[in-house]
Amino acid sequence: MNKRLTEIFSVLPDCDTFADVGCDHGYMTLAMLKAGKCKRAIISDISEKCLQKARELLSGYILDGRVDSVVCDGLEKVGKCDLALIAGMGGEEIISIVKNAPHLPENLVLQPMKNVDKVRVACVEAGYRIEKDYVFFASGIYYNLILLQKGEDKLSQEEIEFGRTNLLEKGGDFKAMLYQEIEKYKVFLNNDSLPKESRAEMQARIEKLERYV
Ligand SMILES: C[S@@+](CC[C@H](N)C(=O)[O-])C[C@H]1O[C@@H](n2cnc3c(N)ncnc32)[C@H](O)[C@@H]1O
Fold it and tell me: What integer pLDDT is reported at residue 146 of this predicted model?
């Protein structure tokens, strides 16, 4: 597993039935079973071709009845599970999966590629509490990882924008991500032809980000 998958694996809690939604290669399910972190698993993907890769990887577990596989959109045909992972998809896609799920698991772990703020809001609206929400750096990219458990929650505007754990712990990868954004805006500001309004917006954004680093 690469660094991104290794980080995700490290936060997945033990469970009975693990659902790997949009599993593609199936590496996470293999790691969960090998480590004894789940008793059984359901692998799913919207693409038959992608799911086939995971079926091949997990053929032994499928034969002994510990893994079921299903082609479907999101959690549509996944059935009951107590932990679902949805990783490597856009935030809007993840929100649509959560909103349309016939059964939502007790625990959800999400790694959205975009629109993480919208994902936070949608999950709390769907009845989840954010247990952990942080940024990590892997292979040149900053990723957001969100651990949720069923329950009530209320997010501040800051938590929606930056992530609860990032604000509490101000981790090194979170700060480095903010520095990167600040540097990007500073480069734009060096451009003399930048319209006045855009310049003011960027300066305001820099000032805001600098409060968190
Ligand atoms: C970039 S891969 C990520 C694979 C793996 N989850 C990971 O994090 O490495 C995205 C996978 O999600 C699948 N996918 C995209 N939209 C989906 C949906 N609505 N329901 C199920 N699978 C979906 C794609 O077919 C693809 O296999």
Answer: 98
- Per-10-residue mean pLDDT of the chain, 213 residues long, equals 97 98 98 98 97 98 98 97 98 98 97 98 98 98 98 97 97 97 93 90 94 92
Residue to mutate (ligand 1; options 12, 21, 24, 95; most atoms within 8 A of CB) = 24
The answer to whether 171 and 135 are in contact (CB under 8 A) is yes
Whether the Cβ atoms of residue 101 and residue 75 lie closer than 8 Å to each other? yes
Cα(58) to ligand 1 centroid in Å equals: 17
Per domain, the residue ranges of the chain are 3-168, 175-210
Task: For residue 24, give the ligand 1 atom closest to its CA.
Answer: 27
Task: Tell me what pLDDT residue 153 has.
Answer: 98
| Ligand 1 contacts CB of residue 92 (under 6 A) | no
Per-residue pLDDT, 12? 98
Q: Sign of the C-alpha dihedral, residues 58, 14, 140, 121?
A: positive
Please tell me the predicted confidence (pLDDT) of residue 27: 98
Indicate if ligand 1 lies below 6 Å from the C-beta of 73: yes
Query: Taking the CB of residue 21, how many other CB atoms lie within 10 A of it?
Result: 27
Domain 3-168 CATH assignment equals 3.40.50.150: yes
Ligand 1 centroid distance, CA of 184 (Å): 30
